[in-house]
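Retro notes
What went well: the complex prediction finally ran end to end.
Inputs used:
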Amino acid sequence: MFALVDCNNFYASCERLFNPALRTSPVVVLSNNDGCIIARSEEAKALGIQMGTPVFKCRELLRRHKVAVFSSNYPLYGDMSSRVMMTLAGLAPDIELYSIDEAFLAMSSFGRYDLTEYARLIRRRVRQHTGIPVCVGMAPTKTLAKVANRLAKKNPHYQGVCLLDRSELIASALAMTKAEDVWGIGRQSTKLLSLRNITTAADLAAAPAPWVRKHLHITGAKVQAELNGISCLPMELVRVAKQSICTSRSFGKSVSTWEELHQAVATFAGKCAVKLRKEGAAASLLTLFIGTSPFDDQQARYWGTKTVSLQYPTQNSMMLIRAAQSVLDLLFRGGYAYKKAGVIVSELSPLALAGRTLSLFADEAAADSEQSKKLMLLMDGINQRYGRGAVRIASENAGNWKPNQDCLSPCYTTRWGDILEVKG
DNA sequence: TCTGGGGTCCTAGGACCC
DNA sequence: TCTGGGGTCCTAGGACCC
């Protein structure tokens, strides 16, 4: 048995936690750059606000119903997430951290427990320790646990808990679930399935397996097997090392000068370097992309992307910034209104190995690893203690590209300065 | 005026090898 | 006139997830 614990309207719930006056009012959280709505409280959903709606299309609705609007505050959500996960880790022998607001728990050793009661306990405990409301779905496979969780969320009479442990229960749950709402079935698969009149999860479970294997490939075949109670997706107990790290942003205002793009690109490369050091990895490839708005029909469009290999694997901010900026010189075209840029580092190797990677430029590699390692360590230490950006590489500079964040809440749980501000 | 960010896995097809 | 068979590796792009 697997349990899937999923936080309700997670980002909206985090914002509400520290603002009890909003307990019963509609709350929405915006994407980066205050562009789209990416989280909604139940009250906001009831107003008909759809997931992913651009804010400018529903500004009037938000105003009319006095919806509380927040820019996204990832330090806050990340910290609340780890508190939820810590609580969950104490409630089952094995836990898989699936996303910022979801975890799978291994329930197979709970044979003698009343699982429904235990699921209720999980809900109570997380609520008590963190204030975050969650729903719990339990079933013999992960995909079915997802189905169960979804039912628990959508139907109030489940009171946040749904256990699918008998075949009649599973069958009726599948009949109630649309195929497109099954985990792993996206837009394209839905289109394909509907051509074959496969519209519910029950239809999908009963479809001819060879057809599913052929058209939905191995991923779809696993989904189908899981719906039929055959577990194909094991618990992933250890977080696997990242294969790539990306930092990208849409710009608050469009940018057309070489100088400003250089600042943005340096900042993104610098952030990638910090993430690399946190991950304990070094990168061998760097990709840069820059582009104009895909929505603006008036302006000329441009999308440029290029990948270069670095001389040796590195996590050094200066190396990565220099590399990114030199790629920018290749990609940059004058006369465009740039709206977005990003840096991806990939071909990651654990730093311990990276230091020993053979290089034609062994001296440079050695100098890089020894001296700059100390410098980077020092930089990270200072920024950890005195706040992000206390020291930075000079070319990392804010400009017109800086994303909008007009409704940002304080980092209530991760910044002393913000707490004092709240108190004051 | 205004439309997110960060990932993974899979497949097809090309390049290349003997 | 007629031009093999078997394999690996790499990459781009698609699909999906939250």
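What we learned: Residues 222 and 232 of chain A are 6 Å apart (CA to CA).
What to try next: split runs per interface for comparison.
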